[in-house]
């Protein structure tokens, strides 16, 4: 396998269902949609944790947050190998655009090329991204070196385009560096996702989000355009994904389907077939590091948690990818809300270790217009009242029929007819916790599984319904 350049493009808080190639409204993401026709689309890709810094740290270590040290906004532990540690000895030039301080300690990554957020129009200027990409690639070519570039768009992270938050968050000088999206959306053209109520202020905020998503796509187009102009596209593995779901209630900073599912697209000339869709197999952001190692011709550490995607990218299959675990530890404010989730083709199971009936959930996804609109509607709409109360306090366990209820609207954990599925998912999670040395394993065994399950756990293998 020949050594490839590697271009990793990330969106910030882009929901998996937003790009048109993943079922979103047509026209919002033309560059992403075009890339999808040129490579492989993964319908069941997830990040391991739905918040920025730990998600990105997991990508570049291939390890679960509790195994790399970055459970929240902490630095990766010393001694944990980084992707850049593996690529530099092979001659790679390594660069990063935006989100630099969301991979810490920054100095350990040893970046050869860095562009900070304020050098990139607050992470939202396509022209700045194009210029930086062109400069980085040209220098690598002059040095006759392969390269790895992580191009991180700051859209559609809050504050959204046209929002009140945008005016209060950025100074006038900063706002002057941020271009208008190539398309701006109005509330009438913005349909809320199924996990949110269709309220006027929700539509307004979704429209702002879509405008920011379009500007994210503008950045993707600019970076890909610079790569094409460099003449190195045919020698470059391109990966696009989001670090987590959209920053709305029931998405980012949780363990629901729409929290961790990510719009993963991979184009690798000479290896992938254009227009391929992988619809059944579950893949993870943890799989990126071993995949990049394969592309670079360097060995991945033996103890990484991810598995290379090369088999799936080149037309093969892996039947071990029939389910997936995701986690959550703490919010950007440092508040711990420990959660674990198991998903398979049919069901999703969530354990909320923090849910005690008294502690209330609070996170960044409740800023802006949507959550206040839900609270106001709850005063007159019983269904919205139930939904908001559930979001605040949760139940210790939740079970959803995701193939029929992807928005997780109906909790089946108390349904006697679903007892077998609940038991199966519990066993799968307990086995994963054992295999990864999850610090909460003993707590889970003693508070959720009964004595018979604990006694038999050593003999159990994951059972997925």
From TrEMBL:
Kindly provide the name given to this protein in its UniProt entry: Sulfatase N-terminal domain-containing protein
Fetch the InterPro entries from UniProt: Alkaline_phosphatase_core_sf, Sulfatase, Sulfatase_N
Which superkingdom is the protein from?
Answer: Bacteria
Family stated for the protein in its record: Belongs to the sulfatase family.
Record-linked SUPFAM superfamilies:
Alkaline phosphatase-like
Where's the Sulfatase N-terminal domain?
A: 4-298
Q: Which UniProt keywords apply?
A: Hydrolase
Give the originating organism: Jiangella asiatica
GO molecular function terms here?
Answer: arylsulfatase activity
Q: Which CDD domains match?
A: SGSH
* Name of a matching Pfam family: Sulfatase
PANTHER family in UniProt: ARYLSULFATASE FAMILY MEMBER, ENDO-4-O-SULFATASE
